[in-house]
Specification:
Pfam families: AraC_binding, HTH_18
CATH class of the largest domain: Mainly Beta
Number of domains: 2
CATH architecture of the largest domain: Sandwich
Number of helices: 9
Mean pLDDT: 90
Radius of gyration: 19 Å
CATH superfamily of the largest domain: Regulatory protein AraC
Low-confidence stretches: 1-5
Protein name: Helix-turn-helix transcriptional regulator
InterPro entries: AraC-bd, Homeodomain-like_sf, HTH_AraC, HTH_AraC-typ_CS, RmlC-like_jellyroll, RmlC_Cupin_sf, Tscrpt_reg_AraC-type_HTH
GO molecular function: DNA-binding transcription factor activity; sequence-specific DNA binding
Order of helices and strands: EEEEEEEEEEHHEEHHHHHHH
Strand content: 15-25%
Distance between the termini: 29 Å
Keywords: Activator, DNA-binding, Repressor, Transcription, Transcription regulation
Strand order of the largest sheet: 1-3-8-5-6-12
Largest sheet: 6 strands, mixed
Shape: globular
């Protein structure tokens, strides 16, 4: 099921590369419609990034969300799916393990600084088999240095292992404005509220309320990035007022929605 009950996406093809032509390889894509890839992995690291649109990387651990100010580091060999919002302009990087200094086994959402954004844009204009010993090679090295130094941020929605919680979470994502309480869910699932609360903390590290709030706020990034009114997004996410939504957004991201996207 697509996240947040959005219309079904078309399947996007994956390049059939057997190896990288250079240790750092750039891929440009323009995706006018909402798109997804099937579950797959690469023998190299991928930095999934878009200068416009919102990306979501889905793994067994959860959803990693990247608006234009962020990118997702996907380790080599990690199975994942990629969702993109309409009108996404991707500038992804494929990075050979020999030059990937960030040695982590899980996905990370990284901050894309203005400098890193410009480096990615400039690198995207180079030919595939660029001169590694000349100016293009030096540009690639500076870009790698900036990618390896980019700080991670918590733009991830953890997914539970428990089958009952997965049912609950799928329903919440399909209807983010739903107002059912944990007590009501416990009745639907025929399990005590105390047990559900304990399982949420065990599997996600978040309370039911905190998980639902994060799910709503991460889901709000796509319509906000596309220019929808904050009031409309707030109501679609289940908030009673725009002020309550902005307060929750500020708590999660450290700024208002307007400030967040102006920074991008």
């Amino acid at each position: 099921m697509p996240p947040n009950g959005q219309p079904k996406a078309y399947r996007r093809s994956i390049p059939g590369l057997q190896s990288l032509p250079r240790p750092l390889y750039g891929r440009i894509e323009s995706l006018p419609n909402r798109a997804l890839t099937h579950r797959h992995s690469h023998p190299w690291v991928q930095l999934s990034y878009a200068i416009a649109g919102v990306l979501e990387i889905h793994t067994d651990a959860g959803r990693f969300v990247a608006p234009p100010q962020r990118a997702v580091w996907i380790p080599a060999g990690l199975p994942h799916r990629v969702y993109s919002s309409p009108r996404t302009e991707m500038r992804s990087l494929y990075i050979d393990n020999s030059v990937a200094e960030r040695q982590v086994s899980v996905c990370q959402v990284l901050v894309v600084s203005p400098l890193l954004r410009e480096l990615i844009s400039a690198f995207s204009t180079l030919p595939v088999e660029y001169d590694q010993d000349g100016t293009p090679g030096r540009l690639a090295q500076v870009l790698l240095d900036q990618v390896n130094a980019a700080p991670p941020v918590d733009l991830m929605l953890p997914l539970p292992r428990d089958a009952r919680l997965r049912t609950l979470c799928r329903s919440l994502q399909a209807q983010p404005d739903g107002q059912a309480t944990l007590a009501q869910w416990s009745q639907r699932l025929a399990v005590s509220e105390k047990t559900l609360s304990r399982l949420f903390l065990r599997d996600t590290g978040l309370t039911f309320r905190a998980w639902r709030q994060r799910m709503r706020l991460l889901g709000a990034l796509t319509p906000l990035e596309q220019g929808q009114r904050v009031t409309d997004v707030a109501l679609a996410c289940g908030y009673d007022s725009t002020s309550a939504f902005i307060a929750a957004f500020r708590q999660q991201f450290g700024c208002t929605p307007g400030e967040f996207f102006r920074a991008g």
